[in-house]
Amino acid sequence: MSETAPVAAPAVSAPGAKAAAKKPKKAAGGSKARKPAGPSVTELITKAVSASKERKGLSLAALKKALAAGGYDVEKNNSRIKLGLKSLVSKGTLVQTKGTGASGSFKLNKKPGETKEKATKKKPAAKPKKPAAKKPASAAK
């Protein structure tokens, strides 16, 4: 009985060693990062907006139609389009003429690098309230 137990233990450890050896190879093969082919979404958006002749800018719906006509899968990458628009507006490449967030109309910024600050309505300084005129005390009679 003592002879069979030592033989079984090395047989169990050998497959474990082989499995451990295979795992790093799989991890090394799967860790390759794939770079998408073609231009980025922001480049496609800027090209579509610059090609537009609209005076007030290109709307989100018209932008999606232009990207779809160029062969871009709009339905699959809808969120990337919105994120790209927001980033271009925050960088100052695009100006948002209507709407908020990713909705509305967009056109190219005439002065690149300068970000357009939203016009905030300044409230007039609060005037100090005049103390109420004190009535003469009627107890002074």
Automatic annotation (TrEMBL):
Localization: Chromosome; Nucleus
Pfam families from the UniProt entry: Linker_histone
Record's keyword annotation contains Oxidoreductase: no
Residue ranges annotated for the H15 domain, each copy included: 37-110
GO biological process: chromosome condensation; negative regulation of DNA recombination; nucleosome assembly
Family matches, as SMART domains: H15 (SM00526)
Compositional bias per record (Basic residues), positions renumbered to this chain: 119-133
Taxonomic superkingdom: Eukaryota
Alphabetical keyword list: Chromosome, DNA-binding, Nucleus
Record-linked SUPFAM superfamilies: Winged helix' DNA-binding domain
Disordered: annotated segments: 1-42, 92-141
Tagged with keyword Chaperone: no
Listed PROSITE patterns: H15 (PS51504)
Gene Ontology CC, one term: nucleosome
Positions of transmembrane segments: none
Its biological purpose: Histones H1 are necessary for the condensation of nucleosome chains into higher-order structures.
PANTHER family: H15 DOMAIN-CONTAINING PROTEIN-RELATED (PTHR11467:SF20), HISTONE H1 (PTHR11467)
Family under the similarity heading: Belongs to the histone H1/H5 family.
Name of this chain's protein: Histone H1.01
Gene: H101_CHICK_0
